[in-house]
Write a structure and sequence with these properties.
It is built from 18 helices and 7 strands. The protein has 365 residues and is of the alpha+beta class. The chain folds into 2 domains: 102 residues, Ubiquitin-like (UB roll), CATH 3.10.20.30; 170 residues, Fumarate Reductase Iron-sulfur Protein, Chain B, domain 2 (Orthogonal Bundle). Bound molecules: iron/sulfur cluster (SF4) (2 copies) and FE2/S2 (inorganic) cluster.
């Protein structure tokens, strides 16, 4: 098949960038990484990119296709080429570009190291000289975080990192949750304390781009939600982000609304609120915020209260209360647990994942 690619080339010595177009002949099963290999072998040996395993394990081949981070070895070119689309390939975002599609991973590893990404055991030796037995449900809490291959695709897309390069970031925080939630680790509270800083968990803007782009289903945003919930459960709520979240829960429970007018005094304190009085009055004048008094109570506030009580009564504080969507995703992607539905029917559902191309399928169907 004919595959077209436009690649952003970058020369760090001169600082020059250039969009270069290639048209190549590739086998139908080719991935983006195969296409780059063909370009390097047969068209331009100076093209720089990283790769190693070619099977979505090593995390080396992260880059952007049409502005969104992908693993090159996971991205099939067949559908794209059939559609006549010529994708634009560029280096990952939020990391300095060294050459073409290669980024400097040092800032990434510095953040990774900052969360002590290793087990700090909370035990000396197993009872009776045997191994420690951990109930599977305890390990399920960190099952997804343990799948991370350190590719950096989530970091590439992170909005919070774009505005604050010091933000710890989705990959390092997912790794942090990997050990905060590990029942064998003995430093949970210490770890949580260390993550509740100016550039820590509460700086995430909850854009969910990291979940969307992670090629391994780690869902780093969910890991950050678990760290926030667990911090609260441990009474670590001094950060403004934690106060903000707590106020929203109180507000939704008492009136059924998110009363943003009271957010500043409740989270930043009275002094900060007084300093912003003029701004608040301007907002009120333009109808952007409702008057704080009397507080507006939603007609169906009882529903909000019942929901609050239902969640509380389930008795799942901290990370155990964070619901993840992996089962739904796995049903969409692989049809697991889908009853009598065929794979074809699953892929035809609105919003379902694209059916992967399987070489030779047409001949045998
Ligand atoms: S959800 Fe948070 S961590 Fe994830 S990409 Fe958005 S800002 Fe970054
Ligand atoms: S969380 Fe996902 S996207 Fe981020 S580094 Fe790990 S595997 Fe890659
Ligand atoms: S080459 Fe290893 S993940 Fe793509």
């Amino acid at each position: 098949m004919q595959v077209g690619l436009k690649i952003w080339r970058f020369n760090a010595k001169t600082g020059e960038r250039e969009l270069q177009e290639f048209e190549i002949d590739a086998p139908e099963e080719a991935t983006l990484l195969d296409a780059l290999d063909i370009i390097k072998d047969r068209h331009d040996g100076t093209l720089a990119y990283r790769k190693s395993c070619r099977m979505m394990i090593c995390g080396s081949c992260g880059m952007r296709m049409d502005g969104a981070a992908v693993l090159a070895c996971k991205t099939r070119m067949y559908d794209i080429a059939q559609a006549g689309h010529v994708p634009v390939i560029s280096a990952m975002g939020n990391l300095p570009v060294v050459k073409d599609l290669v980024v400097d991973m040092d800032p990434f590893w510095a953040k990774f190291n900052s969360v002590d990404p290793y087990l700090r055991p909370g035990f000396q030796e197993a009872p009776d000289g045997r191994e420690h037995l951990i109930p599977p449900e305890r390990m399920t809490v960190i099952h997804k975080e343990a799948l991370c291959i350190n590719c950096g695709c989530c970091v590439s897309e992170c909005n919070a990192m774009e505005s604050d390069p010091q933000f710890t970031g989705p990959q390092a925080l997912a790794k942090a949750m990997r050990f905060v939630g590990d029942p064998r680790d003995g430093h949970k509270v210490e770890r949580l304390e260390a993550l509740n800083h100016e550039h820590g968990i509460w700086e995430c803007t909850r854009c969910y781009f990291c979940n969307e782009r992670c090629p391994k289903g780690v869902d780093p945003r969910d890991a950050i939600a678990k760290l926030g919930a667990e911090s609260m459960a441990e009474g670590i709520d001094r950060d403004m982000g934690a106060k903000h979240a707590k106020w929203f829960v109180t507000s939704a429970k008492t009136t059924g609304w998110l009363r943003e007018t009271e957010l500043v005094p409740k989270t930043q304190g009275i002094v900060a609120a007084i300093k912003q009085t003029r701004f608040a009055l301007d907002l009120a004048k333009h109808g952007k915020v409702p008057p704080p008094f009397p507080p507006h109570v939603a007609k169906d506030v009882d529903e909000a209260r019942r929901l609050h009580d239902l969640v509380r009564d389930r008795g799942r504080p901290g990370y155990s209360g964070i619901v993840q969507g992996e089962r739904a995703l796995s049903r969409l992607a692989h049809g697991h647990g889908a009853g009598s539905e065929t794979l074809e029917e699953i892929y035809e559902r609105p919003g379902a994942f694209h059916r992967p191309y399987i070489a030779g399928e047409e001949e045998t169907a």
